[in-house]
Amino acid sequence: MSVTAVIGSQWGDEGKGKAVDFLAEQMDYVARFNGGNNAGHTVINEFGTFKIHLVPSGIFAKNTIGLIGGGVVIDPQVLIDEIEMLNKAGIGVDGRLWISPRSHLIMPYHKILDGLYEEAKGAGATGTTRRGIGPVFADKVSYNGIRWSDFTSDVFESRLKMQLELKNKIIVALGGTTLDYESICAEYRGYYEKLKPYIRELFNIVQDGLKENKNFLLEQAMGTFLDTDWGTYPFVTASTTIPSAASAGLGIPPRHITRVIGVTKAYTTRVGAGPLPTEIHDTESEVYKKFGEVAATTGRVRRVGWLDLEIVRTAVQLSGVTELCLTKLDVLSGLDEIQVCTGYTMNGKDVRYADVDAYGLSEVKLTYKTVKGWSEDISKARSFDELPANAQNYVKMIEEAAEAPVKWIGVGPERDATIRR
Ligand code: GDP
Ligand code: IMO
Ligand code: MG
């Protein structure tokens, strides 16, 4: 039996979806435990190309059972659309996808408030996905949330009525328009009817699975540095993004998580506001164009930067990463030289990421190392030996700095464009 967590070691979008998709072949259970549909995980396999927001990306492996833990917040329409999309693509999820009744619902007012808060903050905005994530988690921890379990009685109606009274006052104060109880009530009752067959307490499923020595794959959403506590606060997301979140968010006792795979992009990207120390600002440069990506959830352009080893090293230490999955090495092909940040200093002294806050991180001085690139297209390589020497050296440099072995190397977005070591 093994419980493996897959986490992102940077600011999200490291390629967790692809990693989970290929790791799922050996798994019995694939689970989400944090975040919500702010996540956008890309999977490209024999079924097609998918941007997954809520269903675990390991659902494509036919023997897996998908679990959405109580730590996940759910926009019901997004989940319904995703289930329909998967069923249409031939990935039947009925009878093998279970949603915790403990999970909280994203309500229309959460999305509205997310937008109103962002606008009120103006230049200091977080650059959220505007999916209602901050407001729904705020409601969860201030005892104002609505969960699937509330729908089994008229608790839903009474809580919604109370919340709308509160939320309408805030919305009006911020310049928005009030929401109508009857229509939201009917809309959400409709969602519940559609999703009811999938809602089931996960406690016994998880406990029985552990007893029967089943393999679990826990798919984190977001990245280490968007974590509410350890990320670049306040430029973070509203949930814990390190593997310990799986304990509360799914009901897995921490001692069972024995493998932690840190997915690491060969360079760095970030969406939204907040520090990105190695950021490349020259939008006309070759490397900016090479690294450029479009966000899977919002379609925004991702900010890009060189690989930051201090960031990866910190993520490995914080989450106890046992293995690394390096992604997008193919994207670096064609660069004569590659810059890599090896550490930070401030006032002439070495500092670690953890020594500075988000504002200090914008002021640290970066130590860069220039390494030799390679010109060869490596997208067809399937073994480490097939990689050019400089690409091999790049991988070894990361292993040494992070003190964790690179077990997988991504050389393309498709499932099989992966080197296994
Ligand atoms: P996630 O949120 O961590 O699942 O990552 P996203 O799916 O948001 O972003 C990662 C992007 O990189 C997606 O477009 C993937 O298809 C793509 N990708 C993942 N691994 C590789 C790789 O090794 N090479 C290339 N070229 N693209 C990759
Ligand atoms: P995956 O799982 C990258 C970022 C947003 C914003 C901040 C807060 O695909 O890696 P939120 O909507 O969560 O309140 O926004 O967090 N963010 C992500 N960035 N990948 C993600 O998910 C993200 N989820 C949230 O851009 O800066
Ligand atoms: Mg993503």
Q: What features would you describe in this structure?
A:
- There is one protein chain.
- The chain has 421 residues and is α/β, with parallel strands linked by helices.
- The chain folds into three domains: 2-100 and 200-261, Adenylosuccinate Synthetase, subunit A, domain 1 (Adenylosuccinate Synthetase, Chain A, domain 1, 3-Layer(aba) Sandwich); 104-195, Adenylosuccinate Synthetase, subunit A, domain 2; 262-420, Adenylosuccinate Synthetase, Chain A, domain 3, CATH 3.90.170.10.
- It has helices at residues 16-23, 76-88, 108-121, 133-141, 155-173, 181-195, 203-211, 245-250, 286-291, 309-319, 358-361, 389-402, and strands spanning 2-8, 29-32, 41-45, 48-52, 65-68, 73-74, 97-99, 104-105, 215-219, 257-265, 268-270, 303-305, 307-308, 323-327, 337-346, 349-351, 365-372, 406-410, 418-420.
- The strands form five sheets. The protein has a nine-stranded mixed β-sheet, sandwiched between helices.
- Strand 3 (41-45) and strand 4 (48-52) form a beta hairpin.
- Helix 3 packs across helix 4 (133-141) and helix 3 runs parallel beside helix 5 (155-173).
- Bound molecules: guanosine-5'-diphosphate, 6-O-phosphoryl inosine monophosphate (IMO) and magnesium ion (MG).
- Magnesium ion (MG) binds at residues 12-13, 40-41, 296.
